[in-house]
Model the fold of this input.
Amino acid sequence: MDKILEVKNMAKNFESKMIHKNVSFYLNQGETLGLLGHSGTGKSVLLRSIIGLEDIDAGEIFYRGNRIDNLSEKQLYEVRKKISYSFQNGALFDSVNVFENIAYPLFEHTRLQEREISIKVKEILKIVNMEDAISKMPSELSGGMQKRVGLARSMALDPDILLYDEPTAGLDPMNVDMVIEVIRRFKHQGFAGILVTHDIPVAKKVCDRLLILKEGVIHFTGTIAEFDASEDIFVKTFHIADE
Amino acid sequence: MKLEGLRENFRITGDIVLMLRECIACTFSRPFYWGRLLEQIIQLGIGSLGISIVIGTVTGLVMTLQFGYGLERFGGTLYVPAIVSLSLLRELAPIFTSLLIAGRIGSGISAELAAMNVTSQIDAIRALGTNPMRVLVVPRVIAAILSLHLLGTLSAFCGILGGFVIAKIEFNIPFGFYMNKVLTTIRLTDVFGSMAKCAIFALIISLLACYRGFQPQEGTKGVGKATTWVVVTTSTIILVSDFFLSKILILMFN
Done:
């Protein structure tokens, strides 16, 4: 399998606090990798570091074989069109409506006409089951709805890799199923993803491999079967969460 | 502790200079967000129109009243139009309008950007492959510069007209005489000097407000802190820099 993303010996500190130490992993084309860990272990920081929203202190990050951690902010704009990040809180632009939020990257980076953008936005909204909210302002949406619109916006440019930051947290079971379906759909189109979640059943449903962070280092990495079969005490705490 | 504070101030100054450099680079390269610029001109400039007119007019009224009665004792009432118009145009209109704008749009910009920062919207702009400097800062800075120098001039004009009302009512100075004195006193360099001052103050206000809005915030409390910092800092810088700008303008044009 082709490695689409590779992180080698990454380290990240916030002032004197160590967040990551020697973190190495890879992501194959078309694969979805689940990133687990207790709160505060730096899962979101790891995703943010991949697309350069956070600087790393050591190590290397490669996208399609090209090193990206040492790129300038301007060069990273190109990378971010291909590696999209779905924010935990949606991070919608609160001064514009849902349509404009999703259309924003399309207006910025494509040569599509307004009519084509409108069609594309409607299609994306249909995927996340939010087509009725097209003209609503973010303040009129619930937290879960904002999250789904945020997910829709991150898919707008058809990225190669989608980084999902807790996409199902705070959603009702029906919407969790919808998000699972979206991730699966994205995966079936051959795209890769990294899913940060605390929801083990969700991770098991959509991920090919799991990676568990503990105290800044990767404690476990393996397939779902390997995860289920693991006798490691720390990994077992996640089994409990699954039950 | 003092050394620490000094170092911090140098760091902030350095960051703002770098921000200005990037802002200039973004202004003269594509894409340029004309729509956002227009939106900001409406919000910052047209939104401040009414209050600028009021400030200018009231300043003109008070100045004429004070100078009129003050100079009357020395038989100098006829100098009122010249003194009022010159002081309004050179100093009071740019300063008062800028201080007002620092309070109104400076705090508005920093609060808006700080709130966007807290809710990860600025990160979202970056994550979507666009430059927040280009999207958020450049339109605000240019809109502030374009708006403030016009607002300052308008404020001075209203002050001069307001001054005439008091000059007529209180001191019976006829309109023709008043305007003749105003027009023979004011030179074009005074108007340009006033506009230049306002433009520089607008740059200070908008840049500092954007800078503070972009800094990491301590939640919603940080938003309040950011706006306070912007109003206090920009007001102080405006007042201090006004002295030096006035000196430079006098050296250049007198």
